């Protein structure tokens, strides 16, 4: 039986291992950390705090992820949460960005316009600036790779407060 070595136990490595195993190929998975999952992993530290390796978000556009979770038997362990981000503000206050359960980009439009973080002008400028990415082609989006967020924001006339209050929070 052929054997394949996979280096890395992130989602890509795990998905590859499962596909190969399903095809009858013997797999050896090598991961240097004590936990699998790569950027989607978390663990408990010595103080009992839960530490995330990366942001644990699932978006509806991840079409292959839910079937994968079902296939490997972990779907029922997923804890679904509201798509709400709390942004810490000075003085101990916070602002809430809620992405409702409607298709993108409508959910983003609603989140960025229905909040108490931005002024009315910041909401309008952000909406029009983000629209270029929502309606732009993949080729357009690829042209942005060389540009900083600030350069992009200025080019699209998004109010400075949007960057200061959200992206530099």
Architecture blueprint of SSEs:
Layout: E1 3-7, H1 11-22, E2 26-30, E3 42-44, E4 50-52, H2 65-71, E5 84-88, E6 94-98, H3 106-113, H4 120-135, H5 138-142, H6 149-155, H7 160-167
Parallel strand pairs: 1-2
Antiparallel strand pairs: 3-4, 5-6
Q: Record the strand order, biggest sheet.
A: 1-2
Report how far the terminal alpha carbons are from each other: 53 Å
Measured as a percent range, the helix fraction is 25-40%
Q: What's the structural domain tally? A: 2
Given the helix and strand composition, which structural class is it?
alpha+beta
Structural shape: globular
* Sheet with the most strands, sense and barrel status: 2 strands, parallel
N to C succession of SSEs = EHEEEHEEHHHHH
Mean pLDDT: 88
Total helical elements: 7
For the secondary structure, the number of strands is: 6
- The Cα radius of gyration reads 20 Å
Uncertain regions: pLDDT < 50 for 5+ in a row? Answer: none
Protein name: Amine oxidase domain-containing protein
GO molecular function: oxidoreductase activity
InterPro entries: Amino_oxidase (IPR002937), FAD/NAD-bd_sf (IPR036188), Zeta_carotene_desat/Oxidored (IPR050464)
Pfam families: Amino_oxidase (PF01593)
